[in-house]
Design goal:
Blueprint lengths: L20 E5 L2 E4 L9 E6 L5 E10 L2 E6 L12 E8 L1 E4 L7 E3 L15 E4 L10 E2 L4 E2 L4 H4 L4 E2 L6 E4 L4 H11 L8 E10 L1 H14 L5 E7 L4 H21 L3 E7 L1 H14 L13 H9 L3 E3 L5 E10 L7 H9 L2 E4 L2 H5 L12 E2 L2 H4 L9 H25 L6 H18 L8 H12 L14 H4 L3 H5 L5
Parallel strand pairs: 8-15, 13-18, 13-19, 14-15, 14-16, 16-18
Antiparallel strand pairs: 1-2, 2-5, 3-4, 3-6, 4-5, 7-9, 10-17, 11-12, 17-18, 19-20
Helix pairs in contact: 2-3, 4-5, 10-11, 10-12, 11-12
Amino acid sequence: MTPTAEAAPRRSLLSTDYRTLEYVTGPLIFVHNAHGVAYNEMVSISMPDDSIRTGQVLEISGDIAVIQVFEGTRGIDTDKTTVRFLEEVAKVEVAPELLGRILNGTGKPIDGGAPVIPEKRLEITGSPINPYRRDQPADFIETGVSAIDGLNTLVRGQKLPIFSGSGLPANELAAQIIRQARVGSGEEFAIVFGAMGITHREAAYFMQQFEDTGALERVVFFLNLADDPTVERLLTPKVALTVAEYLAFEKGMQVLVVLSDMTNYCEALREVSTAREEVPGRRGYPGYMYTNLSMIYERAGRIKGNKGSVTQLPILTMPDDDITHPIPDLTGYITEGQIVLSRQLHRRGVYPPIDVLPCLSRLMNLGIGEGKTREDHRAVANQLYAAYAQGRDLRRLVAIVGEEALSDTDRRYLRFADDFEKTIIGQGEEGRSIEDTLTVSWELLAGLPMGELKRVRDFIPKYHPNAPAAAKGGDL
């Protein structure tokens, strides 16, 4: 019998320092003669001044390991820097005490508070929920924003992105939602906020908003600033989602994850791809950006037999307001709808400037109706959409023929569109309950002729402000 060679034992890397660093480019370093190294393995990098940096194995080609350095590569000397492979992937320490804390993009506290005693250390890589175990999204998360709650309802377990543009108040809207969001009474609710590549001014705004309103007590705030290392930006959403999954599926909480700005994440992805000299895809972004985004978005959902849920509200900035740009385009493929901010409404002073016509929540029907919001919710949303779309069309007609050529009914639709933007969309910074949203909607619909309210006909006697007259079929 021919003897078989024994498998080579896994080296003890914790005692092995590599001095074979041969090349540095951007946030990457290349180490040759590296054996037994694993993809995504964490790395400790000892600098000539005795400081320590951390990194992660990005690629392995033969005996060459490509490592992305989280703190950046400035000051790295290829002759004097040593690299140690740590035989583990990136992990984050989790505990219920993370609520109310501010952490950096890798999950380390930066608020000056007491150290968090971890209950567990979890791998941040994560994975999409097993389709067999995935439960259907259901129930309603109230954001306090009428244009979302009434017309594009956010459902537990859903991923619903906000498409913004440069200079539009996406951060203000994110802060408002974090302040106002709530679920049913008796349920534990938490928000995980991952800020990627934001400025110091924006960070100060968020912290002031959370502290002034007391919202910070239920928020885990991950903060990656614009001048922080680019590579750290790639970890932030993964670390945030790992904490969210822990709170949801191990602590039974309803968790809303707000990620802003996914465009900065994609830009970091492109920067690393360029440093690796990869063949670029559309507009210079790597071809695997779709896969990267889906690995983030698909971590939202519910698991059968578990009362917790992870709901995502990612925010992204559309370059040049182009909704066909690769980032919003790929995001739209993966997620279940979108909330679109309008520059035109913003210029007219409407806040929040949500353009409801291109907005969509594909799972809205799963979270509304009797016992969840109200029995007339779907019908009211349909009627508002139809009336507002007609009013917008008439605006274009007026530009051609003038308002004098319109009928009395057309003039009412024209006024409806203006009032809709002032009351339903432009609610300001004050939150509204879903009951208030539906009440305001009915008051607005009362300005239209009775015969035009075809989609809410069955609910007119119960909810119309002038119910007795409406029940008789009179023209209101």
